Amino acid sequence: xxxxxxxxxxxxxxxxxxxxxxxxxxxxxxxxxxxxxxxxxxxxxxxxxxxxxxxxxxxxxxxxxxxxxxxxxxxxxxxxxxxxxxxxxxxxxxxxxxxxxxxxxxxxxxxxxxxxxxxxxxxxxxxxxxxxxxxxxxxxxxxxxxxxxxxxxxxxxxxxxxxxxxxxxxxxxxxxxxxxxxxxxxxxxxxxxxxxxxxxxxxxxxxxxxxxxxxxxxxxxxxxxxxxxxxxxxxxxxxxxxxxxxxxxxxxxxxxxxxxxxxxxxxxxxxxxxxxxxxxxxxxxxxxxxxxxxxxxxxxxxxxxxxxxxxxxxxxxxxxxxxxxxxxxxxxxxxxxxxxxxxxxxxxxxxxxxxxxxxxxxxxxxxxxxxxxxxxxxxxxxxxxxxxxxxxxxxxxxxxxxxxxxxxxxxxxxxxxxxxxxxxxxxxxxxxxxxxxxxxxxxxxxxxxxxxxxxxxxxxxxxxxxxxxxxxxxxxxxxxxxxxxxxxxxxxxxxxx
Length: 497
Ligand code: NDP
What we know:
By secondary structure, the chain is an alpha/beta fold. It has helices at residues 27-43, 45-62, 64-75, 79-104, 141-145, 149-154, 169-180, 195-202, 214-226, 249-261, 278-293, 314-329, 361-364, 380-387, 403-411, 449-452, 478-491; strands at residues 4-8, 15-20, 108-110, 121-128, 131-135, 158-162, 188-190, 207-211, 231-234, 240-243, 273-277, 333-336, 351-354, 371-377, 392-393, 395-399, 417-420, 437-438, 441-442, 455-462. It has three domains: 4-235 and 446-456, Aldehyde Dehydrogenase, Chain A, domain 1, CATH 3.40.605.10; 240-429, Aldehyde Dehydrogenase, Chain A, domain 2 (3-Layer(aba) Sandwich), CATH 3.40.309; 469-497, no CATH class. The site of NADPH dihydro-nicotinamide-adenine-dinucleotide phosphate has 30 residues, from helix 8 and helix 9.
């Protein structure tokens, strides 16, 4: 009998579904089918592809309850988290890429300063790569696994998606959606299997878009290097929030609470650590302790019944508990929360830690759970120094009423995104790039580069050989080449030697 994967509902401990456990040997034939299907998809052109994508967008909105239930069942997140950060994102992404793909990938006419190119047409074109392999994590099965397939498809590629084996159901539902929306057979395929299937995929595709941990991301990059396959890597983060003494503390505390606990803290761009200037530290701690203490946690059954959902995978629960224990052992205080919840399902209480410092894992390693460690700092300079004292550089925010100063400080943070009085909303601005510095990644998603990475660049110089253009042929004749060479030497100052 064929092997299967049982998908767990982390909030109840029940079974959310069963999928085939595919093996690495199944990857090559699937990629071959994707390759065979790609030219037909490319031939539809931007308009033809946009029609399919707009139908998919409508399907997603018409079937949002079913999509939300599927996401909630395999992640244990709340309905609201699934609604805003998953459906909201993906539906917008279909519209954005359908509209902007032709613009971002349009042929570009280029002018050159070289006299050799005078009178010649120079064009830069973007051609689809062929087959894009997307490998995704478990925390956002729609946004961070399927989400990357949307621009890859819009660019005219076929896509093979390897979602996390923990959350494969949403990716399969997307296959149903795309089929009903008129996508050709095999243009989008899903590999339901473990990491070995992802590793095999790397050897067969033309680009690997990976989202996941930094450790696995490095393995992916190493393996892809062997076949010179380009990769995009969206990896972990330890995202700092800096609260200055003149900040609107109520707003900053709301943001710290929401963005540390949203999705149960299992978001690469969540608030992972907070630095608060000494004069407002105690007031800030009081506010976040009150707010976090009021959050309702439990099994998500309908929109709004709980604020914080489950921890999606068991190893993450161990990491969260270990970070809290390590902090407490080294002298931190638990202001609220701090424990796993008993009973069915996998939950860790929304937690605020104070008296923390950089000797503690909760301030240096990615916790990826519902924790909010708050550290008192002398001033903005110390906050900046500590914010940059990290192997990661994904997302950051500065909170102050003096937005000009906030911008100056934000500019000095080593991170792909550094906001002022906002933490995460940039992710919804598909016009701007999102990606990590340092160990947080390679390349970006969103913005023009978010689709150009799924295309091969082809440059073309087009010379026209007509009588009227004869003058521009002169560099090809012997005497003229000497003349041109002399002119160039003069231009570049070498004639003086
Ligand atoms: P992992 O790195 O464990 O896994 C990610 C994916 O890679 C899974 O599908 C996994 O398969 C697969 N995989 C495992 N080994 C290999 C391999 N050798 N070659 C190819 N693929 C492989 O990450 P998680 O699923 O635990 O996701 C959580 C992490 O993702 C966090 O660190 C988080 O910060 C990061 N993340 C980053 C984001 C960003 O945009 N920067 C967004 C969201 C999350 P399987 O697990 O099924 O065996």
